[in-house]
Amino acid sequence: MPKPGPEESVETLKETVQQAAKAETSSPPLQRYRAALFQGLLVLALVAFALLTFLAKTTPSFPIDLQITQSIQTIHSPLFEGLMVLISWPGFLPQSMIITLLVAFALYMIGLHWEAVTSLLAAALSGVTNELVKQLVQRPRPAIDLVDVFAVLKSYSFPSAHVMLYVSFFGFIWYVVYTMFKRSLQRSLLLGFLGGLITLVGVSRIYLGQHWASDVMGAYLLGGLLLVGIIVFHLWGKKRFFLHQPFIRNDPKKE
How far is CA 72 from the centre of its chain? Predict the structure, then answer.
């Protein structure tokens, strides 16, 4: 059988690409279902946060809060304690501000200008929103006669500023790395590191006795909602002002 010539090969490739593109856009019912499901989850998260905020304003702590803290603090391991302190450390001033600026500067220097701007917005929006909610709820922090408190903090407790910062800021950096960096071992390690920070910061805040579990849960909910808004804002601005990217976007289907 004669082999296809260069022109035939190009035509075959074009047909394959067109068929793949058509297949991706040929299931609008599935896309509508996914969009509706995602929107439903956002509404559910918003309702859950509103309910939790109301309860936190009227109740200094819940019985399950104390049970969770006491359970986590039964872990008596110098290694675990050191890990919890280390994970919380980036969330305190001044290091939180320094880290935020350094990460934004690094993004800018590698050509991700809009991502650098959006990351700063994420950190600022997280801090302002957290302070507004804290002043609204005015929930006291865990008392030293109830749990072990590693360091007494004077600010209000609900929601956790650490968790909100990690979810909104480090969560956005995770999104940038996942969608814009080439697949590599370094990329995988960075994604794992950022994901670990976001996941474990809630445990660290409870273990250190500086937040109740409900403070952490409220912060994950509100931080997640902020992260969605930040990503939407990022995509909006990207399409209008910053179209060129120095990195190759990965195909999510191959992850």
Answer: 23
Q: Which residues does 230 contact at the CB level (< 8 Å), separation at least 6?
A: 118, 121, 122, 125, 168, 172
When pLDDT is averaged across residues 40-64 and rounded to a whole number, the result is 92
Closest C-alpha among 183, 170, 3, 195 to residue 90: 170
Residue 203 counted as domain residue: yes
Which amino acid is it at 43? V
**Are 253 and 126 spatial neighbours (Cβ–Cβ below 8 Å)?**
no
pLDDT-based confidence at residue 249 (cuts at 50, 70, 90): low
Strand, helix or coil for residue 93? coil
Taking the alpha carbons of 156, 139, 85, 152 in that order, is the dihedral positive or negative? Answer: positive
pTM of the model: 0.83
Cα 45 from chain centre: 14
Beta strands in 41-184 (DSSP E): none
At 179, list the tokens. 């969608």
Q: Which of 13-22, 38-47, 130-139, 167-176 has the lowest mean pLDDT?
A: 13-22
How much is the pLDDT for 238? 83
Q: Give ∠ CA 42-68-218 in degrees, rounded to 5.
A: 25
- Residue 238 belongs to a domain: yes
pLDDT of residue 166: 98
Count: domains in the chain? 1
What is the domain extent for residue 57? 27-254
Q: How much of the chain, in percent, has pLDDT values that exceed 90?
A: 72
Length of the chain: 255
Q: Is residue 13 part of a domain?
A: no
CA distance 169 to 123: 5
